[in-house]
Design brief:
mainly alpha
Length: 93
Amino acid sequence: MTFRKYLSHALAILSGMFIVFFALDIRNPAMAWIDNRITKALLIIYAVSTMTLAVSVLRGVRRAERRQSERGAGRRSGDMPERQSRLKERSYR
């Protein structure tokens, strides 16, 4: 899961950079970073969709990590999982 986390952070940073470049190109057309209107439209769509995807993946990763830590914190070190405790009870009968 760490690869997904690092890739999502990198995509969020890169898409944020492209959104800034798009805004700078609109504010200062003399720089002419992006000359074609279709390219500008596709770039902003790509950057916004990539940012949305990166944020949603990061939220999913955080939820999974939180659930995993809650499961570990809810179980004490001496507790046995439910399946093992049932097997132990059956062996005593």
